[in-house]
Amino acid sequence: MSRSVEEKKPAVKLEHVTKKIGGKTIIDDLSFEIYKGEVFGFLGPNGAGKTTTIRMLVGLMKMTKGNIFIQGHSIKGEFKEAIRQVGAIVENPEMYKFLTGYQNLKHYARMIPGIDKKRIDEVVKLVELEERINEKVKRYSLGMRQRLGVAQAMLHRPSVLILDEPTNGLDPQGIHDLRNYLHELAYKEGVAVIVSSHLLSEMQLMCDRIGIIQKGKLLGVESVNDFVHQGGEKVRLTVDDGAMAAKVIHQKLAMESASIETETIEIEAGREKVPVIIDTLVHANVKIYEVVSVTQSLEDRFLEVTGGKALV
Amino acid sequence: MLIILLGLLLVGALITKLNTPEPKADSQWKQHLAQENQGMQQNLNQMKGNDAYANYLKSEIAINQYRIDHNLEPAQGTTLWSFVEDSTSIMILVISIFTIIVVSTSIASEFNTGTIKLLLIRPIYRTEILLSKYIAALLFALLSLVVLFLFSWLIGGIFFGFGGADEVHLSYIGGEVQETSWTLAIWKEYLLHGASLCMMVTLAGVIASLFRNGGLSIGLTIFLLMGSNTILTLISKYEWVKYVLFANLDLTQYDNGTQLREDMSLGFSLGVLAVYYVIFVICGWLFFTKRDVKA
Ligand SMILES: Nc1ncnc2c1ncn2[C@@H]1O[C@H](COP(=O)(O)OP(=O)(O)OP(=O)(O)O)[C@@H](O)[C@H]1O
Ligand SMILES: [Mg+2]
Residue B158 has what DSSP assignment? Predict the structure, then answer.
């Protein structure tokens, strides 16, 4: 799944971005880079600061400290040049309800030179709204508004696409299509895509790298593969004497184990080690009641990294 | 909104038509005017101070005298032009309210609905967006004034006869009476009311940018517009009242002898309004462009 990142010039660069509102630090010294041709996932529990970061990325909020560069242009100093590169949805895709979907797109198209009718039809087709595009937006469902939001963000062929929880309200088919489309944009057209979401399984399929944010702090940026596999596989054993089993394994196999309960231990080891472990324990007269191989999902890993904070 | 404007004009014309008896030709109008002038002259002689009212009386006397001298009989009852003139101040109030609604909605409601976000992430400066919303509202007001003029003329004509269309308008300029066109006179009045219209619309824009709430901005501005007279009477005895925005809003006070204080003049009011205007524009601009968008 991981794609090499050829160009080292970042499409988006955050430098020590800090945001304080009323003395409270909401975003704390965020620094990371996003490159063209990758899908970057921005992950974090509710209230972590994902939307706030995105607001600063698109210039809706000012930074208290730091700077953000989009294709080398500072969002502070060269707003027009920077924002021209960006297509975005921030929180919910709110459109003019009294206009039709098509009129909404036309309205946004007028604000950026070089968007013709053909391009509007193209993005409408892309998000599969052809049938309903001439209906008033107030009659749209959540998923249809989300699709229209995506259409609006892509209208001017931005080189940086920022989507705040784009899968919110989409049906499985819609999520599947969006994922394929984002991959196509990133890998074929070299767009830098930033997606925020709580849907971890979704991120796992959609993103190349993820940055985890919690309480306004960046906990780390990793490729999805590393992230999932770093935790590694584990074997969980239920035995009559956990302490004894742990000692045996340490002495004979030089493997570390963690005791979960008195009778349950977990060993960091892959499937291939399971027969050896069982063999060793049987020889040492440890009674084995259960053996389970545990693969950590992104979700487990996420909970581990964020300290087990519940997600919605 | 323009339809409502027309509706109100029609209703106004109907009521006026039904309430005024058929005008009778007055064969002795010259005597009546002369009597009127005598009364006013007496008033004028007894009066001390109040220059504004004195000037107003002087101009009325001069115009009446001009009518007697030039055998210009004043029109009886409501005519096309008097209808246009009478509808001016109330209809411009209605236009003010409509324009306040337009500017407040266009600036603030986008924060309520959240559409402002998608608007501000285009390669357009916030200043340009604010300016275009403001100018659009002012153009709406101007369009409304044109519609008001055309339709009050038309409706006035239909109800009170187009015969009155070529009536001359007498004005007292620089010590002598001149025959001018009614169209010009009406538009001069529109212009004087326009100052207040423009100030209130600008104020609505400032409040909308500050609170980012359409309903609040509409309510507050209309409340100020309606309540300003009451507030003024309460504070009119103080010297500093002349620097209050609302004391200077009504520029017609210098035209019809009802000016609030002797030490105020058209130029003074224009100056005060200009200062307020600059403050409004700067505040509105700061509120709109410099603050975070949390919608
Ligand atoms: N206008 C504001 N004033 C004060 N605090 C705010 C403001 N807006 C957001 N916050 C705080 O900033 C933090 C981050 O909010 P943000 O909306 O960025 O979170 P998020 O990661 O997008 O969460 P979610 O997953 O729920 O969308 C929250 O603790 C929130 O309470
Ligand atoms: Mg959010």
Answer: H
pLDDT, tens digit (0-9, with 9 covering 90-100), for A16-53: 999 999 999 999 999 999 999 999 999 888 899 999 99
Residues A254 and A291 in one domain: yes
Q: How far is A298 from chain B (nearest CA, A)?
A: 31
Q: Domain total for chain A?
A: 2
Which residue from B115, B123, B294 is facing A83, i.e. has the nearest CB?
B123
Tally DSSP H helices, then E strands, for chain A: 11, 14
Pick the residue from chain A with its C-alpha nearest to B120.
Answer: A60
Query: What are the tens digits of pLDDT across the range B185-223?
Result: 899 999 999 999 999 999 999 999 999 998 999 999 999
* Ligand 1 pocket list (CB less than 6 A): A 21, 26, 44, 46-52, 198; B 294
Characterize A211-228 residue by residue with b for buried, 16 or more Cβ atoms within 10 angstroms of its Cβ, and e for exposed. bbbbbbebbebbbbeebb
- Residue B123's H or E segment, with its range, is none
Among residues B211, B233, B215, B226, the alpha carbon closest in space to that of B284 is found at B211
* Residues B112, B109: Cα–Cα separation, whole Å: 5
- For A166, the domain range is 12-85+158-229
DSSP lists the bridge partners of residue A164 as A196
**Separation of alpha carbons B277 and B20, rounded Å:** 42
User: Against a cut of 0.90, is the pTM above it?
Assistant: no
